Every structure is written in C-alpha cells, then in structure tokens.
C-alpha cells in the first residue's frame, strides 16, 4: 500500500528562553534559532534552506520583545518522511511554540500542494506524487487572516495555478487550525 501523508512525522523540541552566548545576542528581543535534523545523516543544504524559511515564519508570530538578550532554540527531528515534509515541519514548529507557552500573535500551519501533469491540485502529496508533479508548492498560512507568511515553489506553474493552489491551501488550513484547537483542548482537559 502507498504511504499516506500521515506517515510523515516530525518531533519538535523547544529550549529556552536561555542566556545567549556572545555575538548572537540581540539587545531588544530574543534570538530565535531553528535546527532541522534529518532522519539519518547530517543536515545538508536542503535542511539549511528549510531552517531559514522555518525561522522566518516563526519570527513573524513569536513576540520576542518579551525576552530580550535570550535565545530560543527550536529543534525539529524528522522521524519519517513519506512526502509533504516541509508542511509537516511547519506544523510541528507551530505546535512546539504553542506547547511551550510562548506568546504568539497568531498560529500558522503548513500546507503542501502538488500540481500533477494534468494540472490537477493534490493536497498533502506523497513522495511519489511530489516526484511526478510539475510543481510542488508549500505555504505557511496564519490563523488570523489566512495570509501567507512564507511560500516555496519547486518546478514551474502559472500565476493562475499558484492562486488556485493558494485557495486550496487556505481551505485546508481551516482543518489544521481546528486540529490545533482540539489538541490544545484535549491537553488542558486532562490536567
């Protein structure tokens, strides 16, 4: 059987706010670092570029001014990758920030869309669907206005197709935000 997107999993760990060493210190806000660890081996170019996108996305929602001169480190460990990995990382990052109780202006989620050779949109594509796709787009969408905080595209697509993918992603985001709310509710109803 083919793996479903549910077979992609990422573990998030958040450390800090802690003291910053040397030149990384920012006098007016916390420094945010994101480390992406692949399932096997050492992080490479792909992980580095994804770390930047993840960091920029997190920085847009974390109220870092409350913890100046400190460092917050988010470590994302890939446990399994069956496709749509970047959106899984975005979701793990947001859940990690939320779970750590950091003050956030909004939540965000990641949605990956693939355009298959016929131009149809596939949400949460598997690794095979990503390989066969003409383009793969991942959006980070905020929970307040459903606006795009960051986006990445691999392959080629028209502006119109990108718009169609975005609309599909924004629709899918509602389901993810509902999942966040349910998870938080379950966590606090247990305690």
From TrEMBL:
GO terms for molecular function: DNA binding; RNA binding. Gene3D superfamilies: GHMP Kinase, N-terminal domain (3.30.230.70). Its main location: cytoplasm. One of its GO terms (biological process) is U4 snRNA 3'-end processing. Homodimer. Component of the RNA exosome core complex (Exo-9), composed of EXOSC1, EXOSC2, EXOSC3, EXOSC4, EXOSC5, EXOSC6, EXOSC7, EXOSC8 and EXOSC9; within the complex interacts with EXOSC3, EXOSC8, and EXOSC9. The catalytically inactive RNA exosome core complex (Exo-9) associates with the catalytic subunit EXOSC10/RRP6. Exo-9 may associate with DIS3 to form the nucleolar exosome complex, or DIS3L to form the cytoplasmic exosome complex. Belongs to the RNase PH family. This is Exosome complex component RRP46. The gene is Exosc5.
